[in-house]
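Moderator note: this is an archived Q&A kept for reference. The question asked for a predicted structure of one protein chain; the sequence and the answer are reproduced below.
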Amino acid sequence: KDRPRPAIFRPVASYWSPRLEYVGTYDERWMKERMPLLAEDFDERFYQVASEDQQTAGFLRGGERVELTNLAPDGKLVFTLPKVRLTFTTNFGRERVDHRAQLHTVILEPGRRRVILVWCTILPCHHKVDKLDSTVVEEIPFV
């Protein structure tokens, strides 16, 4: 009678539920009026590849405690996420734009005793993309 929810420790495929429900409606109306844009009812949760029980409400900051039990050969693995802060300087010709990244994804590989951190920054540049000269990434002190 015990019916625990299924657990998954890998990315949820785009064609699996619940991600599939977030992709939106791509019907004849979409083909005539919006193609190749995303559907009007597209939900950005579609981009989340972690199962719901492994998602956080907001961005991680670094310094969070991680505890993995029975997922590594040693049985228990406890560590703190590194505190890293990245800043970006993007140059569009003579225009300089400073922006910061958010810790976006944490990939845990306990069998290899490896943690992969992925940062994301967003910079609208649609009309300036041909003027993009460079982006410099720097690590700044964590405050």
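Archived answer notes: The chain is about 5% helix and 35% strand.
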